[in-house]
C-alpha cells in the first residue's frame, strides 16, 4: 500500500543544521516505490513549512531549507519554497510522521506529545523515553536506580549558579570529589554542542557559563583518561529488540566534538569494535537494561566509555541519533546487512506497531 511519510526536520534547536543533514539522507534513501515523501521544515523560529511532495530523490544541490511562499517549490538555491503546514493532513489515512529532529523541541518528547495528542503514528520513541533520555541528569538517575555503571558527576541549575554561596559550594564539591579531566555539559543538548573538556581548575567556571548558554541545568562529569568511545545501535520495540555489533569512534583528538562529528568527516568509525567477547556481552546487557528502563521504542543509540582497565560506563542514550553520511547508527546496521532504505522501512513498521499498541491501551478506558 502506497502511503505518505511526513518528514519533520530542522527545529528550534541548536542541532537544527544536523537535523537537516539527517533529513537529506532520508530524502536520498527512502523507497519511493512505496511512499510519497512530504518534507516539513521547522524553521528556527518554529514555523512549520511543507515542501512539495516527493516521488523521487532530489538533486544534491537542492536546498532543504525552506522559506514561506505561495506555492511549494524545490530550488537549487540558498532556500527552497514551502507553505504553512496544515496539520490536519497528518490525520489522514495511510500517513506516518518521521520526526528526524535532534535535540530540544524535537528529541525531548515535545513533538512526540503533540503527535500523540492529535492521534498520529510516528517513528521512534514516545514522550517518556524521549524526555528522560534527553535530560542527562534524569537519565543518570534512572540508570543509577537500575545499577548501571556511570562516571561520577555533579550538577547545578542556573538559579543556584547565580547565588554566590551555592556556586562556591558546587565548585568545592566538584574540586573535592571529581578528578580531571572534567567534561562540562548542558543537561539537555546533544551532538557535543555546549560541551567543554576542562583540564585545569581555572577554566572550570567559564566552561559552566558556556554550557548555560544551551540549557538551564549543567552537569560536570569526571573524565575517563584514554577512554575508548563505544556505541551500540538498538532497533525494535520492547517485545522484539535487536542490538547491533559495537562500533568505536576512532578518534584523532582527545575530544570527539561537533566538528569531528559533522563537519570534517575525518573521524574513523571502527565497525565492529575490537573487544573481548565478555566486554561485548556486558555492553549488550547494559544496553538492553537501559532501553527497558527508559521505556524506549523503535530505536536508540547507546554510548559507552571503556577505560584502559576494561571498565565499562554507560554515557548517554540518543533516542533519535544522527542519520547523516557520517553517523554511526546507520553504519552499524549496514554492517549487519540492513541497508539505509531497509532501516527506514523497519523503523516505520515499528512506529505503526507502537501506535497500534498505544491505541489498544487507550481503548481500554
From TrEMBL:
Its cofactor is Mn(2+); Mg(2+). Coiled coil: none annotated. Pathway: Cell wall biogenesis; peptidoglycan biosynthesis. It is an enzyme of class 6 (ligase). Mg(2+) 2 binds at residue 316. It comes from the Bacteria. Binds 2 magnesium or manganese ions per subunit. HAMAP family: Dala_Dala_lig. This is D-alanine--D-alanine ligase. It comes from Schleiferilactobacillus shenzhenensis LY-73.
Amino acid at each position: 500500500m502506497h502511503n505518505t511519510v511526513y518528514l519533520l526536520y530542522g527545529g528550534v534547536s541548536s542541532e537544527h543544521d544536523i537535523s537537516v543533514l539527517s533529513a537529506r539522507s532520508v530524502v536520498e534513501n527512502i523507497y519511493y516505490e512505496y511512499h510519497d515523501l512530504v518534507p516539513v521544515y521547522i524553521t528556527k523560529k518554529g514555523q512549520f513549512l511543507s515542501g512539495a511532495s516527493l516521488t523521487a530523490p532530489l538533486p544534491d544541490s537542492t536546498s532543504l531549507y525552506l522559506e514561506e511562499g505561495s506555492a511549494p517549490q524545490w530550488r537549487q538555491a540558498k532556500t527552497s519554497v514551502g507553505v504553512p503546514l496544515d496539520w490536519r493532513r497528518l490525520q489522514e489515512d495511510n500517513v506516518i510522521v518521521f520526526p528526524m529532529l535532534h535535540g530540544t523541541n524535537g528529541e525531548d518528547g515535545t513533538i512526540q506529545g503533540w503527535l500523540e495528542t492529535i492521534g498520529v503514528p510516528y517513528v521512534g520513541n514516545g514522550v517518556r523515553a524521549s524526555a528522560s533520555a534527553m535530560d542527562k541528569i534524569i537519565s543518570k538517575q534512572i540508570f543509577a536506580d537500575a545499577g548501571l555503571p556511570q562516571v561520577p558527576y555533579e550538577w547545578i541549575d542556573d538559579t543556584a549558579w547565580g547565588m554566590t554561596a551555592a556556586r562556591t559550594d558546587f565548585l568545592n564539591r566538584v574540586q573535592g570529589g571529581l578528578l580531571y579531566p572534567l567534561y562540562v555539559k548542558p543537561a539537555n543538548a546533544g551532538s557535543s554542542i555546549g560541551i567543554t573538556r576542562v583540564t585545569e581548575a581555572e577554566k572550570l567556571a567559564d566552561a559552566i557559563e558556556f554550557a548555560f548558554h544551551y540549557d538551564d541545568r549543567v552537569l560536570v562529569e569526571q573524565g575517563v583518561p584514554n577512554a575508548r568511545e563505544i556505541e551500540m545501535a538498538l532497533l525494535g520495540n520492547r517485545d522484539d529488540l535487536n542490538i547491533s555489533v559495537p562500533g568505536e569512534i576512532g578518534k584523532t583528538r582527545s575530544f570527539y566534538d561537533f566538528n569531528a562529528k559533522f563537519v570534517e568527516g575525518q573521524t574513523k568509525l571502527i565497525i565492529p569494535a575490537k573487544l573481548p567477547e565478555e566486554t561485548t556481552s556486558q555492553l549488550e546487557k547494559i544496553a538492553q537494561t537501559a532501553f527497558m528502563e527508559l521505556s524506549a521504542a523503535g530505536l536508540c543509540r547507546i554510548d559507552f566509555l571503556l577505560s584502559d582497565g576494561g571498565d565499562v560506563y554507560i554515557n548517554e542514550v540518543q533516542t533519535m541519533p544522527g542519520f547523516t553520511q557520517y553517523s554511526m547508527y546507520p553504519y552499524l546496521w549496514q554492517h549487519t546487512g540492513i541497508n539505509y532504505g531497509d532501516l527506514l522501512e523497519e523503523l516505520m513498521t515499528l512506529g505503526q506497531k507502537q501506535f497500534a499498541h498505544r491505541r489498544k491501551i487507550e481503548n481500554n478506558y
